[in-house]
Amino acid sequence: MDASASGKLWLRVFVVGIVLVLLAVPQVAGRFWQYLTLNILLLSLFSLSFNLLFGMTGLLSFGHAAFYATGAYATALFLRTGMVPLLPSVIMGTVAAALLAALIGFFCVRHTHVYFAMLTLAFGMMVYAIVWKWTPVTGGDDGLVGIPRGSLSIPGLFTIQMGPLAHYYYFLTILALLGMYALYRISRSPFGLILNGMRENAGRVEFAGISARRYLWWTFTIAGLFAGLAGSLMAPLESTVAPASAHWAKSAEPVMASLIGGPFVFAGPIVGSLIYIGLKEVIVRFTQYWLLIFGAVLLILVLGFRGGVVGFLLRRVARANVPLSPAEE
Amino acid sequence: MVGTLVYQGLVGLSEAMYLWLVAAGLSLIFGVLRVLNFAHGSLYMLGAYLAFYFIRALGGNFWVGLLLGPVVVASVGWALEFFFLRRVYQLDVAFQLLLTFAFVLIFDDLVKLVWGPLYQSVSTPPVLSGAVLFMGRPYPVYNLFILTVGSLVGLGLWLLLERTPWGTLVRAAASDREMASALGVRVPRLYTGVFIFGAWLAALGGALSVPVHTISPGMGESIIIEAFLVVVIGGLGSLKGAFLGAVLIGLLHAYGIMYLPMFELALAYIGMAIVLIIRPWGMFGVREA
Amino acid sequence: MSDTHGLNRRDFLKASVAGAAGALLGSELGFPEIVRAAKVKDPIKIGCQGIMSGPLGGYGEYMKKGATMAMEEINAKGGVLGSKIDINFRDEELKPDVALKNARFFVDDWGADFLIGIDSSGVALAVGQVMPELNKILIVTHAATEKFNEGLVYQKKIKQCFRVCVPVYQDGIASAHVAKNLPVKTWATVSPDYEYGYTSWKMFKHYLKELRPDVEFVGESWAKFGTTDFSSHITKVMAAKPEGIFTTEWGGEAVAFVKQAKLFKVFDQTKAWMNPMGGAMDVLQGLGKEYPDGAWVSGRYLFQYPDTARNKAFVEAFRKRWNDFPSYPSETTYTAVQAIKKAVEKAGTLDVPTLIATMEGMELDRPAGECVIRAEDHQAVYSVPWGQITHDPNYPMPVLKNLKVFAAKEYYRTPPFPPIS
């Protein structure tokens, strides 16, 4: 009891420490490091949203980029009108992604395992095809180029221009952290506990009188919503959205980040994102044969840190009961 | 009109055969080992590169390359299963996907290190480079050749699985792993054998593509995704399904390009989505527990 | 774009402190006045990105070869105003987000003074429009979209963007000048299913119709990016019995397309085959003796043209250094580095507005010939010939014969760039 309480305290101190470090980045680090930090935050949020589904229910979405891209494109379209300020644009982008997730989720949640993964892949690639082909709205394969970051304002009180990266840094960081916190609360809520129960035994939960499918549908929609938030925050950062943001290769990123970090621990995808982006950034500085080195390191991570880095360390160091696969109890 | 339809369909069928060879191995491996092998497209690529290598090294004989390339790749398949995949069987299927994806990256750069980043090609053997007239239009002899090889492989697979002792073991292991093991099947050895055979099939597809496609690093990536679609449309583990899935995708391409060019980019995915919404476990798949 | 101001306060302080220290040191150590005043920064850093992995990885490789050679030549002769050149290469992966990260790394972390390279048009537009924020000069050496010079530079006034390779005018307009003299009345295309493919075909139709009203366009099929099997596309357009095939497939897809078209006897059934990207070294080498004689092809530079001492020296040096013939990204990227040298020497500073002013209208004596960087849209204006494939025993790959050269003013679109119907 005591050990667990002090463990919780240390965890809180640790999290507060990380948040403080994140807020201090623009004061101490150059523009590229700010940008890289934002990339890690975006991938963390994106991966956590993916892992809400995968880690809790065992359903691997291979089309999650569809929602990321929908958020990004919708936000970009609102911002490009020049009439909608930043925050409402981001909110509407996020909502658009959630609506699409509700639609696609309706068809996908009765599938399981590989069939679920492939059906989400199919819908993801349909979204990709639509943004590629619907040139008048999406800019086709060139994408939407030149998205203004706009400004954040409360009329009569203040207006902050988001042009300089350091300003946008705070906006993105705060919203991304809020998104991650919301996902954490969801995973610890009664709702999350039911999902966990379903992962372990779908039949048992269904017997308990809960429609598993409806729960999965909600989860799918929430996962899409937060992926959309990540995409919505990405568009003004890059000032470009391109079809690549909807491609399966983009969907593979949260899959990899979650698996590298460990999908059955909440912090796994965050650590995985840090490793994924950090590792690649280091490797491309030394060699153009980055695929080879990256692949080799990936191999070591899968074989050496079974069940993901965080899961592995927790099992080994803290002797925690972290499963290796969603079916395992 | 009917002539065009038939002709275009025949073109689509020959396209489907490369896909079938890759999907056959993929489906077989999934059926028995329960592993989704992302690196299966890379084995296709290695098949192409090694066939090219032997054709060049041995004086331009296409048939020698076709024979030797896939054999070498089969031994690469052995190493993959024996040293790596074996260690992750008890992990979630997603980790197996990640492991094999690591090999996609590694093989892409390895072929670049060995053969360079540029395109390689080999001439079509003279006996196969002609065309026959079909519906008044030229149809390449090479495509007829591919159709024949694809069908023969299908027939051979059926005979192998249904009419040989090894096939019986494979089917037993695919339907119930524990039972097979209890009946004295040496499961690990069987796994290795199936993986080697699947690798050989993919490499055969790659080697056959050498005279008509471009050999380049990364060439396995487009075919692996399509092969996944094929396997899932057919139902995981079902070879009959994989064959029909490949034919379906091939025809969708051929007719889609002709009549629905706006949707060509997504047609294969739309096809799969429709199949899965109607039949959640593919055309011939079995409901998973 | 709101971040257009050049130096921020911190950079400015750093720069002035360094400058003062340099001046102090220089005078104390008694360097000749001229050297101390001239040295702008050592080394001058150039960030280069192109596709280095996957099926199109050869393009980045050819860029790297050209850029490296220019760097070695310049550094061996004492550098730029006494400063060495240093080039860092990164893989653009054909993805805008990766390319943007590369650009930001080059400028904000590594300290690049110039950015060069870029293969994909979408990537060029994405990186181009953050150049005001990064405030360095970008010289594109492969991406060909007219939206880069006509849109970003001319309309949006993003003056940091330049391009030293021929734009899509080579593919869509010069091709029309070739086609008007061919005995072909009906054309069809199989081209990439993206902006480059559409634009080239649109320009080709528009300008050819102007030059020769009796031609007709009877079929088109758009092949998605990464197509390996063109059979269905071939049979679709051949159903319309065209007399000529126009295609803008490039790289490995051009190689596969030609091989499969041969199997379907397209070359026996048509009178002409045109591919503006078909003269690229990777396609020539990839097809080798399989390349049908007489196909009309071009590129953004052809090593056989022009027949000048400058070009011959370049090709010789390239062959000696790399044991290979230069493909066009090698020439254009080589030229970008040489252009940087010339601009910095003329401007005597790395100040971006001064450099932009220096480069506008600047003339370059490059291997591909004399060229001028047009002030209005920052496009290097030079012409590249079209020619027909032939097999010459003196070369290990097919080469071009019957070269047709058009003056740039005949086929380059000019400001104010009227829209094409």
Descriptive account of the structure:
- The complex is a heterotrimer of chains A (329), B (289) and C (421).
- Chain A is mainly alpha-helical and 329 residues long.
- Chain A is 74% helix and 4% strand.
- Chain A is built from 14 helices and four strands.
- In chain A, the strands form two sheets. In chain A, strands 1-4 form a two-stranded antiparallel sheet.
- In chain A, strand 2 (151-154) and strand 3 (158-161) form a beta hairpin.
- In chain A, helix 2 (31-57) runs antiparallel to helix 10.
- Chain A is globular and about 50 Å long.
- Chain B contains eleven helices and two strands; from the N terminus they run ααααββααααααα.
- Chain B has a two-stranded antiparallel sheet.
- The mean pLDDT of chain B is 92.
- A seven-stranded mixed beta sheet of chain C has the order 7-6-8-9-10-14-15, with helices on both faces. Chain C has a five-stranded parallel beta sheet with strand order 2-1-3-4-5, with helices on both faces.
- The longest helix of chain C has 21 residues, at 9-29.
- The radius of gyration of chain C is 22 Å and the shape is globular.
- The interface between A and B is large, with 45 and 44 residues.
Main sheet specs of chain A: 2 strands, antiparallel
> Per the principal axes of the C-alpha atoms, what is the gross shape of chain A?
globular
Average predicted confidence as pLDDT of chain C: 92
Strand order of the largest sheet of chain A: 1-4
Query: Multimeric state of these chains?
Result: heterotrimer
Proportion in helices of chain A = over 70%
* Secondary-structure element pattern of chain A, one letter each: HHHHHHEEEHHHHEHHHH
Q: Average pLDDT of chain A, to the nearest integer?
A: 91
Number of strands of chain A: 4
End-to-end CA span of chain A: 23 Å
Unreliably modeled segments of chain C? 1-37
What does the largest sheet of chain C look like? 7 strands, mixed
From the alpha-carbon coordinates, what is the Rg of chain A to the nearest angstrom? 20 Å
Separate helix tally of chain C:
17
State the helicity of chain C in percent bands: 40-55%
Task: Report, as a whole number of angstroms, the end-to-end distance of chain C.
Answer: 30 Å
In the predicted model, the low-confidence regions of chain A spanning at least 5 consecutive residues are none
Overall number of strands of chain C: 15
Q: By helix and strand content of chain C, what is the structural category?
A: alpha/beta
> What's the Cα radius of gyration of chain C?
22 Å
